[in-house]
Structure formats: C-alpha cells, structure tokens
Amino acid sequence: MSVLQRDPRDQVRVLDEDGTVVGDVPDVDDETLLSIYREMKLARHFDTRAVSLQRQGRMGTYPPLSGQEGAQVASAHALDEDDWLFPSYREHGALHCRGFPLDRILLYWMGTERGNEAPPDVNTFPAAVPIATQTLHAVGAAWAARMKGNDEAFIVYFGDGGSSEGDTHEAMNFAGVFDTPTVFFCNNNQWAISVPRERQTASETIAQKATAYGFQGVQVDGMDPLAVYQVTRAAVEKAKADDPGELRPTLIEAVQYRFGAHTTADDPTVYRDSDEVERWKRKDPIPRLETFLRDTGRLDDDDVERIEREVQEAVAEAIETAESTPRPDPEEMFDHVYAERTPDLDRQYESFTALRERLGDEEFLSE
Ligand SMILES: Cc1ncc(C[n+]2csc(CCOP(=O)(O)OP(=O)(O)O)c2C)c(N)n1
Ligand SMILES: [Mg+2]
C-alpha cells in the first residue's frame, strides 16, 4: 500500500525522537542520505549566522528556519532535477538544496531585491512574502507544464497560517479538478506569528483537507527527514505518473516547530512558553538523522567534523560575497513598480531627487 493511501490523520514516521527506526526506511542511496544531513547542518548554521548578522545591524529583517530543516531539506531531495520549487519566505534550506546560492538569499534579506532572482539553471520561484500567493503560481505553472507534455513536478511550500488563505483553497480545488502535477507541502510549524494552530482550523489535521478536494492528503512527522523524504517522493512520483488517470496532486502536512522567532522583528516569549519550545527541541531533525547514520555505519566523528568545517566555510564565503556586492542605487526602486511610472510615483521621484540634491550623495546614501 502506498504511504499516501493512509488515513490523513495517521502520522507517518520512520525515526523516533532518539533516531531509532520505528517505520519503513525508504529506499534512499547513501549519497542522498549524507547530502540531506549535510544540507540540514548547513541550513542550521546559515540560520544562526543570519540572525546574528541582523543583531549586528548587517542584515534587515530575517525569517529563521531552525527546527524546520528536516521538512525543507528532505522534501527538496525527493525532487528530480527538472522539477520546480515554489518557496514561501522561510525556505532558505530547501532553496539551497536546489542550487540557489546562499549569498543571494542573504542579499535579498539585506534589502537587495536582486538576491531573489534564481540563476538560469535553477528551477525555483522567488521568495513569496504575501501569504499563500505562491500556491496559485505553482498550480498555474504545473497546469501549463502538463498541457505542454513536460514531465515535471511542482512543489509549493506554505504554512499552517497560509492554509487558511483563500488562495490555497482555490489552488487545491483547481489542482484536484484539473489534475495538475502539484505537491502541496504545508509546513505546519504550530504558529502563524502569534496565532496557534488551533485557531487556524477546526479540522483535526490539515492533511485531511485534501479529501474535500478529491485527492490524497498525508500527515508526516516533519522533523523526521526519512519520513518526509518517503512521502514527498511518493507524491512526486504520483505527480509524474505515466498513466494520465494516476497523475494527481497531493497535500503533505509536515508537522514541525520553529525553534526561533517568526522573524527577527518578533518576540515569541510573549505568546508561547519555554516548556513548549523545549518539548519540540527533543524532536530536532539533525541529531535524529545523525544517530541513524552513525548506527548504520554511514557517518563517524571524522565525517561530522569535516562536514562542520565545510559548512562553516561555505556560509562564511556567502556572507563575504553578499557583503561585498555593491548595493543598488536607491533610484532603482522607482524602475520596477510598474512598467511605466504613474503620476504618484513621478511625484515621489521628484521629492527623492530634490532631497538627494539638497543633501549631496554622501549624506543622502548614509541616511
Ligand atoms: C496576504 C498576507 N497577509 C498577511 C501577511 C502578514 N504575515 C506575514 S507572515 C504571517 C503568518 C504566516 O504564518 P504561516 O503561514 O503559518 O507561516 P510561518 O510564518 O509560520 O512559516 C502573516 C499573517 C502577509 N505577509 N501576507
Ligand atoms: Mg506557521
């Protein structure tokens, strides 16, 4: 029986909190397993550094991902090379697995829009800050690919909060009716800023909402990378089934927790207690997979040390690249709002240039 045929209220798990095998280990080669481990370590380290850059005034607002590495990294590894990934604003780890450069992610959160642009060979969409809008983009792109006869799957990430948006329901309804090759991946991290999961929906699970749209929904332990890989791979294969009757979308609800703040502008201690955070930290995806890899002879102390060194170097290099990239001239902000400047924008542009002339470039740019 496919893992997707389970009751959507019955959570899929492969490793328990201690990293002991309690389910069916998916068929994943060693290289992929080690890459999942390495990318999770990298995402965690990147996250720690990014938050500290923000604290030092070297970065704008940043949305941390710690705790969510298992869901992001393992799902991204379940994609095939030509597949497409549509992120929210928190998927730095998933993006990097697909080849999106770390320095661009930093650049974007440092305030340079250009950082949001994927290199030409990277099949990812830009970070979407307006909640859930990316679900419609992903379904539209998936539908277009299907009409063109392309054999590609489209994964779209959104949050538990995003699951309440009209866009998500329209996207899932359309996907169900037109059988678009879409994998809806809900990162249920228990909170939408300060709104808890129970205030988001009265459904027992988010996964079961798929039933209403006529396709399969599955709930997975989102902090168990092997379980996440297993369900995402099954969903990707279903999105690319040869038999047109079998090609269907899927909704995955990955149950997890964000260890840190919603963004660096948020203080989670005012709405959740530290016991809750500690409870979820015991499910940390990184030590869980590390234990499994060590127990099965795939990883030892030397490997861990080497990976930690490589990860630190990669992140340090990305920070160096991002910080040495020239900042765009502020004037550019007027260029891309509309194809042509509106009268309102013209007026703003005039005050902008007047201020710049009055202060002189040096003072103006340091403001
Ligand atoms: C359309 C829209 N409404 C409101 C917001 C403000 N906002 C930013 S993040 C957020 C919460 C989203 O929570 P969730 O979907 O659970 O994702 P998470 O941040 O937990 O990853 C809200 C309401 C927004 N960005 N876009
Ligand atoms: Mg959330």
Layout of helices and strands, plus pairs?
Elements (H helix, E strand, L loop, with lengths): L29 H26 L13 H9 L6 E3 L5 H6 L4 H8 L23 H16 L5 E6 L6 H13 L3 E7 L2 E2 L2 E2 L12 H5 L2 E6 L3 H15 L10 E6 L18 H8 L3 H11 L5 H24 L18 H17 L1 H6 L1
Parallel strand pairs: 1-2, 2-3, 3-7, 6-7
Antiparallel strand pairs: 4-5
Bound molecules: thiamine diphosphate and magnesium ion (MG).
Instruction: Give the SSE order as H and E letters.
Output: HHEHHHEHEEEHEHEHHHHH
Estimate the global geometry from the Cα principal axes. Answer: globular
Strand order of the largest sheet: 1-2-3-7-6
- What ligands are attached or bound here? thiamine diphosphate, magnesium ion
CATH superfamily grouping of the largest domain:
Thiamin diphosphate (ThDP)-binding fold, Pyr/PP domains
The low-pLDDT segments are none
**Beginning-to-end CA distance, first to last residue:** 62 Å
DSSP summary: helix tally:
13
Oligomer: single chain
Name of the CATH first level of the largest domain: Alpha Beta
Q: How many domains, as an integer?
A: 2
Look at the structure and give the mean pLDDT: 96
Largest sheet: 5 strands, parallel
Could you tell me the strand content as a percent range?
5-15%
CA radius of gyration is 21 Å
Written overview of the protein:
The protein contains 13 helices and seven strands. It is of the alpha/beta class and 367 residues long. It folds into two domains: 3-324, 3-Layer(aba) Sandwich (Rossmann fold), CATH 3.40.50; 330-366. Strand 4 and strand 5 (195-196) form a beta hairpin. The longest helix is centred in the first third of the chain and has 26 residues, at 30-55. The protein starts with 29 loop residues before the first helix and ends with a helix. Bound molecules: thiamine diphosphate and magnesium ion (MG). Magnesium ion (MG) binds at residues 159-161, 189, 191-192.
